[in-house]
Design goal:
Radius of gyration: 26 Å
Number of helices: 3
Helix content: under 10%
Bound molecules: copper (II) ion
Length: about 450
């Protein structure tokens, strides 16, 4: 071996083994975020250029360039998240918030992530969907020792393929994900990619769910299915930001699911295509139009559409219980049951007793019941025409003419052009409606038609 080659090789070896130790001596300052508002897109100040995403009620963490390596610092720690206005929940997250910050890099970037544990128990981070050396995969006990409280670990790999990914603990993960530990990872393509279109708006959020008893602040971590706070990025409607688009914009939406059940995500007014999964971009020939896409447990879906219809369009999970706030499910159906004379009798024993659901549950949308402090109401959102009767995995896509390209502010309520709004019929009334309590045809008249025994245990 020539002397020059020897030194070149030695230098490389030194760099590979000692850079992280040198860098550790000067740990990057962790960026933190206290606000649950949607932060504006972070235009990359250095490195390869890309079109940044907008994280709903979240933010993208800045990085430090260190000899061509993008260095990030995540701090796992307890946080207090304002899940809805006035409703605060004790969660665990990263850098001040749950979810943690979005990490955005470019295909081919070398990435070094310092992870400091300020939790009361050990943790790890798994980089969901990434191609990386096995020892960087973040599975406690299998690929690395757990990160003990107070310790900092370093993960380093090349972001090899573009796409939508996430990160979450792979140590005591049932507890740590029930407490809100998760974040998004976006790897942008370098240059033009045959299956990745240019878009004008690029939104991202994670689906998560918590079980917070009315009046309490800390989620129950052992709940498997009976969650009652249904969130996107640890926010519940009406506290989820709207997605804003200028008419004609191509819009991408990246959705990841870290709950215990699937969520059929449904968009009104537009068709979309699933253009990517956590496995990567979907080839053009494998796409078909949808208005609902199911995001199963542990999956990511990337959808795209042209926002060509003006208006305020609902965007929500199609499991109707997931667009509700804290509620019990063991409630008997009272539709069609005659309560006459009943309330007064019960109120002698339970003075606050209210009969609910005789005509359906819609009355709940306006009803103000006394609730324990720090309880998320069951149905809370209000629109220009009244209560929306929603409170969970719901928000709006607001399409407007002539918005500024970088304008992500809520443009307010949609003004419907004359002749485009559903209206009340003013002609002759319909024939007298049948009373609600008359048995439906084909039902034995002696058999009660409405009230049925509650099934044991509701499965979502
Ligand atoms: Cu859902």
């Amino acid at each position: 071996m020539q002397r020059r080659q020897f030194f070149a090789g030695a230098a490389t070896a030194v760099a590979a083994t000692s850079v992280s130790r040198v860098a550790l001596a000067a740990l990057p300052e962790p960026a933190t975020q206290a606000s649950p508002d949607t932060a504006p897109p972070l235009v990359p100040p250095n490195g390869r250029p890309y079109q940044p995403v907008v994280t709903l009620n979240g933010w993208t963490t800045p990085w430090r360039m260190n000899q061509g390596v993008k260095e990030f610092h995540l701090v796992a720690e307890p946080v207090v998240r304002e899940v809805a206005p006035g409703f605060f929940v004790n969660l665990w997250g990263y850098n001040g918030q749950s979810p943690g910050p979005t990490i955005e890099v470019v295909e081919g970037d070398r990435v070094r992530i310092f992870v400091t544990n300020r939790l009361p128990e050990h943790t790890t981070i798994h980089w969901h969907g990434q191609r990386l050396p096995n020892g960087m995969d973040g599975v406690g006990g299998l690929t690395q020792p757990a990160i003990q409280p107070g310790k900092t670990f370093v993960y380093e790999f090349v972001a090899r393929r573009p796409g939508t990914f996430m990160y979450h603990p792979h140590a005591d993960e049932m507890v740590q994900m029930a407490m809100g530990m998760m974040g998004l990872w976006i790897t942008h393509p370098k240059g033009q990619h045959p299956h990745i279109a240019k878009v004008q708006r690029d939104y991202a959020f994670l689906i998560n769910a918590f079980d917070v008893e009315p009046g309490s602040k800390t989620p129950k971590v052992n709940t498997m299915m009976e969650h009652n706070i249904w969130c996107w990025n640890s926010r519940a409607f009406p506290a989820i930001s709207p997605l804003v688009a200028r008419r004609g914009d191509r819009v991408r939406m990246r959705v990841g699911n870290l709950t215990m059940t699937n969520h059929p995500i449904h968009l009104h007014g537009h068709e979309f295509e699933v253009t990517g999964t956590d496995g990567g971009p979907v080839p053009l020939t494998a796409r078909w139009p949808e208005v609902t896409t199911d995001v199963a447990v542990g999956q990511m879906r990337q959808i795209e559409f042209t926002a060509d219809e003006l208006g305020d369009w609902a965007l929500h999970c199609h499991k109707s219980h997931h667009t509700m706030g804290a509620m019990g499910h063991g409630v008997p159906t009272m539709i069609g049951v005659d309560h006459k004379g009943l309330v007064g009798k019960i109120q002698k024993i339970v003075p606050d007793y209210m009969v609910m659901g005789e005509r359906g549950m819609a009355d709940m949308g306006t009803m103000e019941m006394p609730l324990p402090d720090n309880t998320f109401p069951m149905m809370t959102g209000t629109g220009p025409f009244g209560p929306l009767e929603m409170g969970g995995m719901f928000t709006t896509l607001k399409v407007r003419q002539g918005l500024g390209a970088s304008d992500y502010r809520d443009p307010g309520d949609f003004q419907h052009p004359p002749g485009t709004l559903a209206y009340e019929w003013q002609g002759a009334p319909a024939a007298t409606p049948r009373p609600a309590r008359v048995d439906a045809p084909g039902t034995a008249p002696t058999e009660p038609s409405a009230r049925k025994p509650a099934a044991s245990g509701h499965q979502h």
